[in-house]
Specification:
single chain; alpha/beta; nine-stranded parallel sheet; four-stranded mixed sheet
Length: 509
């Protein structure tokens, strides 16, 4: 390795570069260390008439875009959902996570806040504006998971705080704060955000909850990534949500109905046709109040299998188990039957026209690849159905720490957990309370579970999340002009070093 850096250009050589289609090619990569961006090597050479003074030989390893975790609840002892009244203490916690997480190859993350008291949201979301601490991962913005969730799929979210959006998007503004839901450009310009900073806002909600469906379109217009999650939505409701602007599914398979062949529900979106019939997938109309009342009554009367009550376990694991064919399906069928049209039937040509005039883009979907939240076969099934939409996440809790030893650890409220590998159990029980898997481990697991190549797995932790968030020109790729956020990996997916904005911030000893 040459030590001269007078022209601030670095060339990584003898390395394999992941491509946006999941392939790997052996090729050099040039970056500008001062500006922290990736360069077009040929154009730079002809314009500047010079070569990089620093050459780094990577020994045949992989030079990947840095990983992006779009759903993470905390780590290294800090919980993004806990605000104790002091702004600086909260910022220090954010900085700690951003500094420590780079050893897992993550160079950008979206801190996730679970359902809160109404008064906390404006403060928390303001503190979670985009921020890039020095020598640390980028904090891209915020992911608000709740409070507009389906009660029976709430996971660890507090039942007392779950509410409907009675006034649609106005309710969203009253909860999150109108300043946090402003148009994307206005939101970024309203704070002390550095020019050209990437900013991300995500909301997870259940589209069948009152007022949510009508809020999706307005949220997406304002540059907010809307996720379907913690929901009992049927196939038609979920499809309507995507057509209204929903872009992603929150932690697939978890906190949603099980797959059923007659109504595959939210999971079934992965198998949706690129063409829809208007007659079967029209804009969702809210159920009449009598149907909603009957639905709520039927859900509460379901035979329920409950584990011992545990508050604030993994937010994705279902506390209440529901059968595949849920009362939501029955209520929707009753509602649809009551609205059946009368009159002449459509001709064959009209039906064919219907099937080819409405296009449908399947949503992205997050998936926790720890072998706990989803069986390896389920992971492979999902990826086989929709590889272009797959996004690996950790959904990690504050206990996340790759150096945490197996054994008993304190958590909160006097409770303790027993850690065994990536699994967390409530002390003294066999009750699963989540996992502590890291995103680099998810990449390695994904190769094992699906049989895909390491390049294809990397794509699901880099390019796919960047596309979902519409930031692929800056993050998650090796395009010229993108941020030089990089992870050097061996061919098994182990992280060897991490670079943020052209500077090495961590290296394996």
């Amino acid at each position: 390795m040459a030590a001269t850096t007078s022209n601030d250009l670095i060339c990584f050589t003898n390395c394999f570069l992941p491509q946006e289609d999941g392939g790997l090619i052996e090729k050099d990569l040039w970056i500008d260390e001062r500006r922290g961006v990736i360069l077009d090597a040929q154009r730079t050479f002809f314009l500047r008439k010079e070569r990089p003074n620093m050459i780094i030989d990577l020994g045949g390893n992989i030079l990947s875009p840095g990983f992006i975790d779009i759903q993470i609840n905390g780590g290294f002892g800090f919980d993004f959902s806990v605000y104790e009244g002091d702004d600086q203490t909260y910022r220090d916690g954010l900085k700690l996570v951003a500094e420590r997480i780079v050893e897992t190859g993550v160079t950008a993350l979206v801190p996730t806040v679970i359902t809160q008291e109404k008064t906390f949201y404006p403060k928390l979301l303001n503190l979670l504006r985009p921020w890039s601490p020095p020598q640390a991962a980028h904090l891209l913005g915020w992911h608000a998971e709740g409070p507009f969730l389906q009660m029976s799929k709430r996971g660890a979210h507090s039942p007392a705080l779950i509410i409907p959006a009675s006034e649609g998007f106005k309710t969203f503004e009253s909860i999150y704060g109108p300043e946090n839901l402003a148009e994307a450009e206005d939101w970024l310009m309203s704070g002390d955000t550095v020019h050209n900073t990437v900013g991300v806002r995500m909301i997870t909600a259940a589209p069948e909850v009152e007022g949510v469906m009508e809020a999706i379109n307005e949220a997406s217009k304002r540059g907010i990534c809307f996720n379907i999650g913690h929901s009992m939505a049927t196939t038609d409701i979920a499809t309507a949500a995507v057509r209204n602007g929903a872009r992603c599914i929150t932690h697939l398979f978890n906190a949603m109905p099980q797959l059923h062949h007659r109504d595959p529900a939210i999971i079934g979106l992965l198998g949706a046709s690129p063409y829809l019939s208007p007659s079967s997938s029209s804009t969702f109309l809210p159920f009449p109040s009598d149907i909603i009342s009957a639905l709520n009554a039927s859900i509460s009367s379901l035979p329920i299998t409950k584990e011992p009550p545990i508050d604030h376990i993994s937010e994705a694991l279902d506390e209440i188990k529901t059968p595949p064919q849920t009362p939501m399906l029955l209520a929707e069928q009753a509602h649809r039957k009551s609205r059946l049209p009368t009159g002449k039937q459509s001709s064959e040509s009209e039906i064919k026209k219907d099937l080819t005039t409405i296009t449908f883009d399947r949503p992205f979907y997050e998936i926790i690849v720890d072998g706990i939240h989803s069986h390896p076969n389920s992971v492979r099934l999902a990826y086989s159905a929709h590889p272009d939409g797959c996004i690996l996440i950790t959904d990690a809790m504050k206990i996340l720490d790759p150096h945490l030893k197996d054994g008993v650890h304190d958590w909160r409220d006097g409770r303790r957990f027993y850690k065994e590998g990536d699994k967390l159990y409530v002390e003294g029980t066999t009750t699963l309370a989540g996992s502590v898997v890291t995103l680099d481990k998810c990449v390695r697991n994904f190769v094992s579970y699906t049989g895909c190549s390491i390049g294809q797995a990397i794509r699901c932790a880099t390019y796919n999340p960047a596309r979902c968030l519409n930031i692929e020109n800056k993050k998650g790729t090796l395009r010229a002009g993108a941020d030089a956020d990089l992870a050097v990996l061996d061919h098994q997916g182990n992280v060897l070093s991490t670079w943020v904005k052209g500077k090495m911030v961590w290296a394996r000893k």
